[in-house]
Amino acid sequence: MVASNPLFSGWSIKKFNATVVNDVWPEVSFFTLVAAMVALVTKLTPHSLAISNALLTVLGTVLGLVISFRTSTAYERYQEGRKMWTNITIASRNIAQIIWIHVPFERVDKDKKTMTTVESVIEKKSMVNLVQAFSVSVKNLGCTTKVQGLLVQIGTFALIYVLPRDLYPLICFLPRYANPEGPATPADMLPLWQASEDDAYPLHTAVLPTSQHSLSDSHDASFSSTGKEGNSSSKLRRAKTFDPEAALADVQAHRPLRPARSPPDAGFLDYFPVFRIFAWMFSTCSRRLRRKAHKKRKGPLAESNVPLEITIYLSAYLAHLLRQGWLTPALATGLMNNIASLQDTMTNLDRIGSTPLPFAYQAHLRMSLWLYLFFLPFQVVGSFGYLTIPGTAFAAFLLLGFLEIGQEIENPFGYDENDLDLDAFCLGIQRELHEITAHTTPDPTQFIFSAWNQPLAPADRRSAEELTANLSEGYRHADHADSEPGMMSIRRVMLKNWRDVDRITRQ
Q1: Which residues of 258-274 are buried (b: 16+ CB within 10 A; e: fewer)?
Q2: Between the CA of residue 438 and those of 92, 95, 101, 153, 433, what are the distances in Å?
Q3: What is the tens place of the pLDDT at every residue in 67-109?
Q4: Of 70, 153, 159, 423, which sits most exposed with the smallest number of CB within 10 A?
Q5: Are the C-beta atoms of 236 and 259 separated by less than 8 Å?
Q6: CA atoms within 13 A of residue 304's CA, in its CB half-sphere
Q7: Secondary structure class of 484 (helix, strand, coil)
């Protein structure tokens, strides 16, 4: 397979933003100006700024190795993040198959209560939806490492936990309270709902789910008035005709919801990062002013680990199946191992996203590179002359680019152009789970012995229906009258199949 060259496969603004040119051009311009100054002073004036280049080779080699190690370490984290999402896909698929296929549809519990097929389908499909909700919750939890939006301030004090629109329809049926009668005190409320069931959005004002109101349209205004995100009033749209929210349940929430996908808009500072120093100074001053104005005003902060709570519900469902005797120990072990795999993967993803490279290492490496590039023109101007200017620019672009790439891919969970496409992973899991639940698990005898099945092809192209109908005539060996009808002839056919397939596939 010949891979296409990304430089010649068509350029766009999105591809340009995926490069590190926007991040390194101010530094490259600065060191290029230094090189121009050194070259012009040395060539046009009697003063020579050239110094010995004895340390150029040694320091360049060491610095190159350190930058290479930095980039390789970041890429390992990028690859590990991709492997973790592969584990989520595999575990989700296995859990859905065990629940949908191996848990019986017609069941009688220990209290002699019979569960109908419709009730069983509703129960199992709801649990499969929870499996889908796990990947969506992990995606949103990972994206918040770079994009703020889960916690939104209401008024002066209250902070509420804002769920995304692609997650709420999958988990809105879970119990909101620690007991069916409701919470005796606010401390009895489950963590998932504790931060949002406050005075601003009481549960008793909630509107029941309806098919006449869209989840996306009903609370755009409410979230726009409370949230701080730039894309809060827009739906998730990866293309003009693509709306993943249309594939979810139509539930009207009693609280504001944030968009399923809310990447930050590219602003002026993204294209001109040299001016970020002024933004930093302004934000620092304004932050200190806010601290003085609201020094004693701190609102309640309630966090919720949604993926962990989903695995708790899945484990409770497994315990329920075991208590009723509806799942064999071997399948229960497989289901438990896959739930544990989801928990391990969630922990590893959190480790990748919350463990950046130590600041001392990053700062020392960047300062060492700056010093090397600053003194580079002084060391090569005696040999290169005016070529020092483009040579320094190329060296700065090369070294600073690799350093910036390492920082770019260090945390692959977000909305940067080079980050992993977590939305695509979640949508792939959603498609697979719906495909699993689309099968009705019929009896194998209903589809195996049919006229459409030719199990012994290419040596024998008769259908399974013809083979079973002519069993006494075509597949009984004369020398083995006591053997099972047809076995000797079938063995010869299978041997011929192997020879024919081996010959055909090697041509």
Answers
A1: bbbbbbbeeeeeeeebe
A2: 16, 15, 11, 42, 9
A3: 888 888 888 888 999 999 999 999 999 999 999 999 988 888 7
A4: 153
A5: yes
A6: 20
A7: coil
